[in-house]
Design a protein that fits this description.
By secondary structure, the chain is of the alpha+beta class. 38% of the residues lie in helices and 31% in strands.
Length: 97
């Protein structure tokens, strides 16, 4: 299960993030989104965990936790298909107004 982590301190490293999530299970992949020009973190990243139950435990325990001075937000990352479906739902709701 892939998780989105937002509001990260830009000094937080991928190793720190991975260690934080390893408390809840096996981390398959950890990636921070980096600014191409400056090479610094953009303040968000992704974690892929092996088991959905472990990912859910991580969300429950880490969402709104203060890490390196900032309260991080953790949620399930949407797939491209879910993003498309949600944006279609939003636009059809706007059309009804």
């Amino acid at each position: 299960m892939k998780l989105l982590i937002r509001n990260l301190n830009r000094l937080t490293t991928a190793a720190e993030l991975e260690k934080l999530f390893q408390e809840f299970g096996t981390v398959l992949k950890c990636s921070l989104v980096m600014d191409q020009k400056s090479g610094t973190s953009k303040g968000f990243g992704f974690i892929e965990m092996q088991k959905p139950g472990e990912a859910k435990a991580a969300v429950k325990n880490l969402n709104n936790k203060t890490v390196n001075g900032l309260k991080i937000r953790v949620k399930k990352a949407e797939t491209q298909q879910e993003k498309h479906r949600n944006s279609s739902d939003e636009s059809s709701n706007r059309d009804r107004l």
